[in-house]
User: Fold these one by one.
Assistant:
Number 1:
Amino acid sequence: MRIGLAADNGNWHKARLREALRGLGVEPVLFSLADVAVMTGGGEPLRVPGFADGLPDGVLLRTIAGGTFEATTMRLGVLHALVASGVTVWNGPTAIERSVDKAATSLLIARAGLPTPDTFVVSKREAAAEIVAREARPGNPIVLKPLFGSQGEGLMLLEDPDDLPAQETVSGVYYLQRYVSRSDGLWRDYRVFVCEGRAIAGMIREGDGWITNVHRGGRPFAWDVPARAAELAEAAAAAVGVDYTGIDLVEDGEGGFLVLEVNSMPAWSGLQQVTEVDIAGAVARGFLNAVRAARPPRLVSALG
């Protein structure tokens, strides 16, 4: 198999995935989506580094290089073009677009009938102020999240409409979500890793503040994922259409869980510290299974 591993940063994850693919008998070609070109005038117009004589059979995507809106649009266009050409891409561009856009994720989760905190997405500050005035109060805040964001960056707790930032600072979109507090006062949530539609590992995340991301100082703890949390995470992954993902959950205070986020390019260094499951190995196996399933069977000569 001709396999590409697209990773622009995150050396730890890149090395783990490369090692896992090699362990399964595949030598991946490392490349960056930023280096893919479109050149017409002869042969395949999509030029992927390391694949001079055609396209790969599959591309395992770890990260997409940051950049301008135009650059990101082109890189997603490259992924769409690969999929249209029959290349297996994990995660695919549609799943990435759905999960990177938190509004799209919330819409899909709600349409699937899955439990999630009440969420409000509007474009104008006046509309956002009305929501905060109606839904928030001291001790019961609303969370403001960047529409595009990860690792807990840019989150704010709001109790008063006057605390809302200006429209231009949120790129013209206010993504507001009800804050779910715990009765015991702990800052805790949960991450479930789903691959090939199955929950394979999970962890508890605790912090000294309300943002519990391991990247921001949150502490990971081992977690024997209960069936109801596993089923919810699997359903959330299916609703968004991700092949491998980290699903963030919080307790609902009634013995169940709520879906917070679906991550299409999840980090798992914190999770790997507290689970015996080889996360990179599971992702590599699932990806190669998908590539093999998509490849047409080889014809064997009756004389051979």
Number 2:
Amino acid sequence: MKLDHTLIPIEWIKPYKEEAIKDYSARLSKIIDPKSDFVLIGVSFGGLVAVEISRILKPCLTILISSVETKIELRPIYRGFGKLNIIKKIPAKLFDPPRYIASSLFGTANKELLNDILEDTDLQFAKWAVNELVNWDNQNQVENLIRIHGTKDKLIPWRGLGKVELIEDGEHFMIVDRAEEISKIINEKIKDRSHQLRLNSNS
């Protein structure tokens, strides 16, 4: 993405055994310096983590891309997997999908990059993340939230709940395939938020 502000990627840390996403997010939040104003951006599963961190650090904005704010937005089948406790019984090696299936689910023309990401994925982490996703219990909305979602996302379909910036024909991998459009939305939203904060400080 091409943003008008400094983008600082946060590297995933290894989850502890049986660690809940809330506790994991609390540990991860310690990497962030909250002393200055900042915007938190979460993509896909990272959006769930961003929601949890936002409740701890209170960023100026939280931006979710191809993600969800509450558990009710997840597909019912995902929540069903959580209730049945199925994910923990599946071997980690099965979280490395055949590439043609992954390409279809993520919806991207950039198959080479997707394959590289999948090759670098820690399967134990992937299994933990999927289990936390299907068992996520957050029902609380986030303050100062921006949603960006694709209309053709297969992995986390948009369910028409809440206000959102929709990317027409955008799929789950649109953070790469539609990076220019997403960057423009983020730059505009941060600019609007900065202007609002200046107005509030002068009033």
